[in-house]
Hints:
Chain A: It comes from Colocasia esculenta. Chain A: One of its GO terms (biological process) is ubiquitin-dependent protein catabolic process. The complex is a heterodimer. Chain A has helices at about 20-30, 80-100, 105-120, 165-175, 185-200, 225-245, 260, and strands at about 35-40, 45-50, 65, 70-75, 130-140, 140-145, 155, 160, 210-215, 220. Chain A is of the alpha+beta class. Helix content of chain B is about 30%, strand content about 30%. Chain B is globular, with a radius of gyration of 18 Å. Mean pLDDT of chain B is about 85; it is low at about 80-115.
Amino acid sequence: MFRNQYDTDVTTWSPAGRLFQVEYAMEAVKQGSAAVGLRSRTHVVLAAVNKAASDLSSHQRKVFKVDDHVGVAIAGLTADGRVLSRYLRNECINHSFVYEAPLPVGRLVVRLADKAQVCTQRSWKRPYGVGLLVAGLDESGAHLYYNCPSGNYFEYQAFAIGSRSQAAKTYLERRFESFDKYSSEELIKDALFAIKETLQGEKLTSSICTVAIVGVGEPFHIIDQQAVQEMIEAIEAREEAPAEPAEPAEPAGDIQDEGNQDAAPMEI
Amino acid sequence: MGSRFNPYDNNGGTCVAIAGTDYCVVAADTRMSTGYSILTRDYSKICQLADKCVLSSSGFQADIKALQKNLAARHLLGLLSLLSINICFDATPMIDCFLILLLHARPQIYQHQHNKQMSCPAMAQLLSNTLYYKRFFPYYAFNILGGLDSEGKGCVFTYDAVGSYERVGYSAQGTGSTLVIPVLDNQLKSPSPLLLPAKDAVTPLSETEAVDLVKDVFASATERDIYTGDRVEIVIINASGIRREYIELRKD
């Protein structure tokens, strides 16, 4: 995407019928760290990669609880995401107050999409620079939506947004057809796998990712770090186990470590 | 000369609460009346606002219902994010526009960690503010807030209709309160708040003794107060959680 004379204002169309500012806003989403969502018939899982700005700082919050039955994961401008989460929370609370019932997810995303659309049609505003994966459960079942800065929204079985999300999407595309029947544990495992794909070689630990789940009989909550770490280790143990017998006993540093010889790779 | 529309009604009933060293007992009868009639014998005047915080109110139940919903919504807002109070007020559709503008003028940002419940003293302040907000068209609600504070000690806060509140060792509100309070004064020997040094406002009684006292006190109030009776709902809050007991009372 290159600079051109039609991209200064969000209220300027290009001759090809594009609004460049909106498209640039979607670029901002692609720059954010990855977030994935998957759903089965009864549960929805959100997982996000939390990068800390530096070793000294805390991790960015990417997953927000909106209500007992809805949560979001964001990618892009975190500040915009925080503000929109607050808006979503307010909408849910107002609805619960008046109707004494949880706000159906489909209606929530429409309100969010309408709010985003407003910013694409005012010369004094800019589009929100954040994409939201909205995961929720209502009377019609489990839902996963993606809300774009453009004001569009789509429902998905599984989706990934943010940087290197294509790797996760490819992984999910191969497996999504069986998601409907998955249990919540399998869903979480697949979410972690998908996140792993976006890391491309970097080690997956619970300190750099956040996992949250909502489902039948389970209000939206973020799974605690300890539990996530155990799941990650379980996945990795399963990955390595079939590989072990194939490997010959490598004389790894036999000069230094006699202990290594004792710990034979046959110890599975 | 017709009478003007009266926006209030008194649905009667009595509420009592006693704070202990590590427990809190909150009780209320379940009779709802209007005039000299009974509307129902099975109405709960006790509402759980947070993990260890319970509100019991006597007075006009419609206002009380609205007050409880208001508090629950504000608690949720405080729970979920860092928020300013003006947004809390947007959650209540009944507030007039100009009042919202007034509050926009003094935002106070207070932070509650996600998933952390509000402590009882914090809820007490919130209730006081909520009540005073309607200073010129008050909630006809006489409230007692009971629960455990952040140290796990029992606490009871007693209110008037417009939000004046005080932390006490025990309290009673409602139509039977004048019959109950002298008995509690006699039994609980709580030191006067005027005495110095300020003493802890909780009773040395054990949990079972406090519950027995509450049962006795309701039985007595039922005898003489026509608006109190049917059944008493007793809620006991302690470190292991919240449990309820129901005791039958005279139905006349």
